[in-house]
Amino acid sequence: MAMDRSHMALSQVTPQVTSNLQQQTRSTPWLARRHTPYTKTPKSRRLTCKATRRIPRTARSRTVTSRVNELVGKTWRVYSVSPLHSFTSTRSHLRNYSRHLSAYLEAERHKGGIAVDVQSEFGEKASFNLMHGIALTEEDAEAIEITVRSRSQNGSKDGKIVFTGILCSVEYDGVNIDKENFVALPVFLVKGTAAVTRHVIAWLKIQFDCRINMMRFPPMELAWMVSMWSGLISDDENSDVAVVRFPSLELMYSVPEEVKGLKSITMTVKAGDAKLLWDSVHDQDSDDFTEEEMESFILGLEAHFFAHFKINLAAMTLCRITSSAAFIGAEGRVKILSEKHVHQVLRHFTKLVTESRPLK
Under 8 Å CB-to-CB from 8, ≥6 apart: which residues? Predict the structure, then answer.
C-alpha cells in the first residue's frame, strides 16, 4: 500500500504537532469515537444493481440514446426529494413546467431581490426534458433534466447554462407511495449558481408539494461507500495499467480541534492494493457486502496506517472519500468517475433516501 500523500502531509508539520497528535490518538480507544450516522445502517448492502439496463423506446419503437455519460466527471450537489405530487412527464406537461419555471424566475429577478452583480448570471429560460438511460426498472420513473440558461448576451441565440438539475431514481422499491398521485424521483443532482439553485428548489417545492433537502454523508456512510466500491474493479483491471486508469483510493480524515497545526490527514492506497484487501474480507459468493466486512476493510486500512505513523485514524472523522466509482464529500458533493458505475452510485443514493425517510 502507498501512503505517499499521508507521509507528505505529516512531514510538513513540526515534531511537536506529530507528538501531540499521537498522544491524542493513543488516549482514545480504537473505536470509542467512531462516528455513527443519524439513522441506523443496515446489516448488509447490495453491491450491484439487480436489474439490467432498461432501454426506453419511443412510440415508433426506435431505441433512445442513453445519456448516462453526461453525469460523469462533473461535481454535483446531492439533494433528497420527497415524492412529487401530480407530476407528469408527458411532453406537453414538461413544456408547461418549463414555461412556469421560466416565468417564476423572471418574476423573482424583477422583484429586485437579486444582487446587481449576479443578475446577468441569474437565468430566465428554463427547460424540462426526459433523460434516458438512468432508470433501470419499471418502478423507476424516467429521469428528468432541468436546465436554466442566462439571458442571451451580444445577440447570441442562447445564453449559457447557469443551472442543471437531474431528478432521478435507480431501483426504487416503490412500496410506500401512492402511485396514482405521486411520482418518486428521490435523488436530485444539482450543478449551478447558488441564487438559481435556491429559486429552482423553491419553485419545485411549491409546484409539486414536496420536500427537498441537501444530503449530508456522515462518516459511517462514507465508510460504507468506500468499502463497497473499492471492489468494483475486476480482476483483469487489477494490474499496473489499472492504477493509471483508476484513481487511487483516498480517505480524508479531519483532525480534532485540540491538535493544533494540522487540519486533515489523507490516506492514499493504490487501487490494486485496496482490491486485494477487499477480496480478503468479502465473501466472493455473495452479492451483498456486510457490516462486518465493511468494518474489517476500514479497520485494515487504519491498522496499516497506525503501523506506519502510530496515529489512530479511528479517533478522527472521515470526511471525504475517493474510489474508482466516485468522489464523495461529507457536505454532499459528488463526482462520479466512471460511466459503468453511475447506476451503482445512484442506486445507493436512492436507498439512502428511502432508509432515512420512507417515501409516502
Answer: none
Question: Considering only CA atoms, which of 126, 169, 167 is closest in space to residue 147?
Answer: 126
Distance CA 171, CA 167 (A): 14
- CB neighbours of residue 25 within 10 Å: 22
Q: How far apart are the first and last CA of the chain?
A: 46
- CA distance linking residue 38 with residue 34, whole number of Å: 13
Write out the E strands in 93-237. 125-131, 143-149, 161-168, 182-183, 187-192, 212-214
Q: Write out pLDDT tens, residues 191-238.
A: 999 989 999 999 999 999 999 999 999 999 999 999 999 988 754 444
- Residues contacting residue 279 through CB under 8 Å, at least 6 positions apart: 231
Q: Is residue 352 scored above 90 in pLDDT?
A: yes
DSSP string covering 307-357: HHH---GGGSEEEEEE-SSEEEETTSEEEE--GGGHHHHHHHHHHHHHHHS
How far from 61 is each of 53, 55, 64, 211, CA to CA, in Å? 17, 11, 9, 36
With 0-12 / 13-18 / 19 or more C-beta atoms within 10 angstroms meaning exposed / middle / buried, residue 335 is: middle
Q: Are 148 and 196 in contact, with CB atoms under 8 Å apart?
A: yes
User: How many angstroms separate the CA atoms of 336 and 76, rounded?
Assistant: 9
Which strand (E) or helix (H) includes residue 256? none
- As a whole number of angstroms, the distance between CA 93 and CA 87 comes to 8
What's the chain's length in residues? 360
Range with top average pLDDT, 3-17, 60-74, 88-102, 242-256: 88-102
Give the angle subtended at the CA of 178 by the CAs of 176 and 181, to the nearest 5°: 150
The pLDDT of residue 250 is 96
Rounded Cα gap, residues 265 and 10, in angstroms: 8
User: Exposed, middle or buried by CB within 10 Å (0-12, 13-18, 19+), for 5?
Assistant: middle
